[in-house]
UniProtKB/TrEMBL annotation:
Superkingdom assignment: Bacteria
Name the record gives this protein: Tol-pal system protein YbgF
Family matches, as InterPro entries: TPR-like_helical_dom_sf
Length: 384
């Protein structure tokens, strides 16, 4: 279908939803029509997703929503491999355009809660990228603006499910950041203190009731349950749903395997991991060394426990190769893969190879690291 024809159809049907609410965010007809595009984005079919968002931009050229969604599409390209900065500029440009359009709406109507929502969201995402890149000054500026517009966007009950994401993240991370990043404590003194448990409750509410923010809330929930909250089964429940809903999303696929491994479901973790490795080899979108590093280690661990030493060795070597590709030689997966390769070499009576792997552990790990300590013990006990 030609772009102009698709846009014309979209514009005609939009009249139905516009009578229900003055806010485009609350237009149920639009939500229904762009569900496929949003689902395509989270399923890593970016071409299909961005085609739908571009039609929206043609239909609503002065509204921030299509620019925000185009920016979100770039964000997911970044998320799967954060060391790749090639999408940064385009992501920031779309978020700047979102800010420009929303600021104009707010200037025309200072009570426009929807405009404030987009300003809070765009600045919030910019802050996330700047934090990832350790651009702390830019991250602080973006964060302060996100909080300012978050305050302005409150008070509209209908928008609450969407707005709560920012509120939830603030409540949780305003407590978490000072505890985990002492250097940022002076910065956080500028902001009011949050409530972590309230933040979790709000994330759950967004995950249940929001349209645009649902998956983003689920993303934060499974990350928090897996690490900070020490609730791996809750994290597995969410990652299972996300992988089933978006089976071609490599980030969700990777964390599904990780949570299976974390709760001791090793055989399933191995099977999921082998599928990830096949997709990397086949060149699927978003499947790269980071996913491979996880998957190869989980597969190796299973075969190691089953006594299948050759398969274990193969996948530990893959873990090391992916780690070298990512230049992440200090990561736990890399170090413990080397350590296990050393143990396998000892089992096979190959002292020279064992020493090579164990020396590599010592060369890449800090002395206090448990892998470094175990490597020293193995070298000494086996007189290598």
């Amino acid at each position: 279908m030609p772009l102009s024809q698709a846009a014309g159809q979209m514009e005609a049907v939009t009249q139905i939803g516009e009578s229900e609410s003055s806010y485009l965010l609350l237009d149920k007809g639009l939500q229904f029509r762009i569900t496929d595009a949003v689902n395509s984005m989270y399923n890593f079919d970016f071409e299909q997703a961005e085609r739908g968002f571009q039609v929206m931009r043609y239909t609503y050229p002065e509204h921030p929503l299509p620019y925000f969604l185009m920016g979100l599409s770039q964000w997911w390209k970044i998320t799967v491999a954060t060391e790749n900065e090639s999408y940064d500029a385009l992501f920031l440009r779309y978020m700047d355009q979102t800010i420009e359009k929303a600021a104009k709406m707010l200037e025309e109507d200072p009570e426009n809660k929807e405009a404030a929502f987009f300003l809070a969201g765009a600045y919030g995402f910019q802050g996330r990228l700047h934090s990832e890149r350790k651009n702390w000054t830019s991250a602080t500026f973006a964060g302060k603006n996100a909080l300012k517009y978050l305050e302005l966007s409150r008070g509209e009950e209908e928008l609450n499910p969407e707005l709560l994401l920012g509120d939830a993240l603030f409540n949780y991370f305003s407590v978490w950041i000072p505890d985990n990043y002492p250097l940022l404590r002076p910065v956080m003194l500028l902001f009011p203190k949050g409530d972590q448990q309230l933040g979790l409750q709000q994330l759950e509410e967004v995950a249940e009731n929001s349209f645009y923010a649902r998956v983003e809330a689920q993303y934060f929930l499974f990350r928090l349950y897996a690490s900070e909250e020490k609730q791996p089964f809750k994290a597995l429940e969410i990652t299972t749903y996300l992988h089933e809903k978006y089976p071609d999303n490599p980030y969700f696929h990777r964390f599904f395997a990780r949570q299976l491994y974390a709760v001791g479901r090793g055989k399933e973790a191995m099977e999921v991991s082998l599928e990830i490795l096949k997709r990397i080899e086949a060149g699927w979108t978003g499947y790269e060394a980071n996913s491979g590093r996880y998957a190869s280690f989980f597969a190796a661990q299973y075969f190691d426990r089953m006594g299948q030493e050759e398969l274990a060795r193969k996948h530990y070597l893959e873990t090391v190769a992916f780690g070298d590709e990512l230049n992440s030689q200090e990561s736990g997966y890399y170090l413990f893969a080397l350590l296990q390769l050393g143990k396998l070499a000892i089992n096979q009576g190959d002292g020279a190879e064992a020493r090579r792997f164990l020396d590599a552990v010592k060369a890449n790990a800090k002395r206090r690291h448990p892998a470094h300590k175990e490597a020293r013990i193995l070298l000494k006990e086996n007189k290598l």
